[in-house]
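Q: What does the assembled structure look like for these inputs?
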Amino acid sequence: MEYTELGKTGFKVSKICFGALTIGPLQTNMSVADGAGIIRYALERGINFIDTAKLYETYPYIRKALKGWDKHVYISSKSYDYTWEGMKKSLEQARIALDRDYIDIFMLHEQESELTLKGHQPALDYLYEAKVKGLVKAIGVSTHTVEVVRVAAEREDIEVIHPIVNYQGLGILDGNITQLMTAVKRAHEQGKGLYGMKPLGGGNLITDVKTALNYAFQNPYLHSVALGCKSREELDYNICIMEGKEPPRELAQKVQAVPRKLHIEEWCIGCGACVKRCPNGFLELYEGKARLKNDKCILCGYCGSVCPEFAIKII
Ligand code: SF4
Ligand code: SF4
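A:
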């Protein structure tokens, strides 16, 4: 495993960050024991960096996986809170649920624009106070936009940026991959810690998985890349690519044989909550039910988090 300094945070993180979203209720919904087993395997393979969020509901998996593990593991979490009190609650919830004195990185989740960032200032204010008290070590933002990377690059108070990065620019809300990389390069020059998300475009780039992973791993401005894995084989495959090795044929076949997709159950009541929630506008209502408008879904699972009927999920 390769390790890199995450900007100026002082954290030496693995090139692969374990993306916990995949194992949790918004995606494959594994049992805590199974999901924790995969995380533990990732730790044994040298991964020391885990990405999660309040929304993902994966704290129990991480807590179980870390039980008895004696090396330090960097945990990055995030929440949508925009108030001081809300962020305080979310950080406390994370510390208790993960059984940690402090969280290594806590971020504002899915920031859309400079304006959204301004609106979240009270939540950031709380995070600074928490940092002074040692409850959080670094503060960051996650985003699907070029604008937020640009703005965050110039702000001293934001130390880590978690942008969507894949070679086709899938899921970038306000530009293309060239524009995003210009902003990421600038953020890198400013000493920000940068770890990318969705290198496979949520599964859409699985047909050319090697190109997609190589783009992310060889990107000179990303210190780490968050990758969701739903099996040990997938993890082994990703590590092979990261290390520049040719994955064994049998392993490659196994990994590529299990694509993921968005599934909408027939009991969908057509409330439209998922349509409003999709940050990319990929959902619509048709004949009283939700459906995808196109084949560009990046399988982020955010739509599933608002469904009152548990009718939309990644399978
Ligand atoms: S449809 Fe759902 S999973 Fe697909 S991009 Fe939109 S929110 Fe994400
Ligand atoms: S949120 Fe759930 S019930 Fe409502 S339209 Fe979407 S899938 Fe259907």
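DSSP finds eleven helices and 14 strands in the chain.
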